[in-house]
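::Amino acid chain::
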Amino acid sequence: MIAALAFPIHGFMNPQRLWVLAALPLLVALYIVLLRRKAKQGMRYTNTSILEVVMPGQSQWLRHITVALALLSLVTLGLAWSRPLGVDQVPRQRATVVVVVDVSLSMTATDVAPSRLEAAKTEAIEFISGLPAEFNVALVSLSGNPGVRMPPVTDHAAVINLIERLQPQESSSVGDALTAALTALSQAPAGDDGSMAPGMIVLLSDGANTGGQAPRQVALQCAQDHIPIYTIAFGTDNGYVDLDGTRQPVPPDLDLMRELAQATDGQSYAADNASQLRDAYRRIEGEVGFVETEKEITATAAGLSAVFAFIAAVGAVMLGARWR
């Protein structure tokens, strides 16, 4: 319905009341019938010049718009009576975020300036700095032997200090790093009521995987635990590293990163320069820092109905006064 498109509706508190909208097609049909009947009526006066003076012509488009606005007012009023529900972005009170930083040798490629690893560290620091102070943050380094470098803490400065000191290491096991992230989440302190805060994983990597557990299998475990994985894939297809005097191409595995996010109801971003990385982090900050909550928007629907009714009333007054 046209009126419903003016604001997002995700449900109704009293959907049984929507039956009143069934009257709309009847009113439209009645209006069409009256228009056709008027068109068939014959002219009683042959002197049209005198008729124009006595009854000035009325604008067809004004009459149609007035009727349409009146009908829209009824539609939105019916929606308001049914108590519609919208969605509001409410800041999270608590959460545990595990930041997984890939420190494998492929991250030393310089296709993302100054290097994939340095860019990841810079953006990870900016991301953590923007999180609410109440959030627990943990750090996992991704290499051939990944581990929890910092368990969940609210001391964000301590996590940032560790990120700044990360150094490249050999090999890469994405699956083992995700398992370490799950371990870190299990170490998060419970709230005052004993409940655990919602957890999420932010994976910064080029997606290269050289061994260890199957990443997709671990992602299924994350999905079962309702832990979303947000991924940012670093690098371009032209990336390379020099190892032992041999140049080796290290293109990012975008498919793996995308599959990990999709399997856990997270989001995947591909970034090959600093500006795109910052944009990705801003999006993740918005998704991590807020939760969608349903709220009643009856007042919005009623207000929109009042606007339609007022404009329709103005049109009716103009028609009644026979303004040109």
Observations:
- The first strand starts at residue 11 and ends at 12.
